[in-house]
Amino acid sequence: MKLKCPWLKWLIFPALLFLFASCSSISYFCDAIKGHFEILNKAEPIDEVISREATPPHLKKTLINIRQAREFAVLELLLPANGSYFRYADIGRKCVTWNVIATEEFSVVPEEWCFPVAGCVSYKGFFNPRDAKNFASDLQERGLDTCIVGAAAYSTLGWFEDPILSTMIYRRESDYVNVLFHELAHQKLYVKNDTAFNEAFATSVAEEGIRRWFARTGDVEAYEEYLISRQRSRKFNALILRARDKLKSLYNQKTSPEVMRRQKVEIFQQLQTDYSELKKQWDGDARYDAWMAKRLNNAHLALVATYNDIVPIFRLMIQQSDGNLKSFYDRAAFISSQPYEKRHQVLKQIYAQREKWKPVPTAFSP
Q1: pTM recorded for the entire structure
Q2: What angle do CA 349, 101, 245 make, to 5 degrees?
Q3: pLDDT tens-digit profile of 14-39?
């Protein structure tokens, strides 16, 4: 439903919090509203930032590209034509939010937290890193595995006009264009209570968007650099998912906690060894070293799985659409309308037919 008066959203949104939130969570929601207000208050029209003499040349160039990519997203990718991403906010920190992911000690299934608009998701976000650490500490005291991951962006799903954030301004063009397309895809289609579906859909749309973007700009070198980076990310994710599957099999065995703890440690040790072998193929690329240097646990692996588990299915669906994104969106929307179990059953059936479909080679093939 479109609101005739945009200011009504500021009244409705807090009201929803009191309708659906428990007393213990009202403080959290109030902090979230405050954090979002602070960001919106810093947002300025992109054109004004670009025209300002004091704006650094790199930022000007990036914002010009983002402005063009925003138009491209509407015309070529059929993503929402609304007021999002026409303003820029320098928020003065490395991350916009810090997300807490948690699992039981012997589980790779992430805990979920439920919210009035977004439904239930596999993480809980905080605008203040201290609050994220305190929340994670409370969960650890309950015996849960936890991890905290900083986020460059988040989507209000079209409720508000989201700005471009300084945290989204990466060195490589493919990175900031990817974030833009990903967040707009969330506004195109979002299913309550299904984080894996939402992230896989947005990731696949962003990948296809980047392919088409570079096909338009003709920057072959930048696209080839992106492909190398994406291939390495896929191999790393596959490594993590294999370790996750090993842990899942272990936890399904009805062995003693002592045995599972010992074997759990062994699986994570093997993951470190496998990563060292994989990295030898990467010409010194150490992008995942800091992540692997952490004290990894179930929650870290659950995070990767949430964002990557079913992405190949959506990639396949895009191939099957023969380049017709409207057809792809319609199909994804129909699948999303099914009950959760039916929805994922349909997705598995689509992937089971993958050998019948081969990508059509183009100058900018994925």
Answers
A1: 0.88
A2: 45
A3: 444 444 444 457 788 888 888 998 99
Whole-number Å distance between alpha carbons of 213 and 198: 22
Q: How many CB atoms lie under 10 A from the CB of residue 362?
A: 11
Q: Hey, is 55 helix, strand or coil?
A: coil
CA 61, CA 80: separation in Å to the nearest integer?
24
Q: How far is residue 365's CA from residue 210's CA, in Å, rounded to a whole number?
A: 11
The pLDDT of residue 24: 52
pLDDT band at 341 (very low <50, low <70, confident <90, very high): very high
- Of the candidates 169, 100, 159, 147, the residue with the CA atom closest to the CA atom of residue 128: 100
SS3 for 121? strand
- SS3 letters across the chain: CCCCCCCHHHHHHHHHHHHHCCHHHHHHHHHHHHHHHHHHHHCEEHHHHHHCCCCCHHHHHHHHHHHHHHHHHHHCCCCCCCCCCCEEECCCCCCCEEEEEEECCCCCCECCEEECCCEEECCEEECCHHHHHHHHHHHHHCCCEEEEEEECCCCCCCCCCCCEEHHHCCCCHHHHHHHHHHHHHHHHCCCCCCHHHHHHHHHHHHHHHHHHHHHHHCCHHHHHHHHHHHHHHHHHHHHHHHHHHHHHHHHHCCCCHHHHHHHHHHHHHHHHHHHHHHHCCCCCCCCCHHHHCCCCCHHHHHHHHHHHCCHHHHHHHHHHCCCCHHHHHHHHHHHHCCCHHHHHHHHHHHHHCHHHCCCCCCCCCC
CA distance 226 to 250: 36
* Tokens 């976000």 found at: 125
Distance CA 189, CA 336 (A): 9
Q: Within its chain, how far is the Cα of 158 from the centroid? A: 16
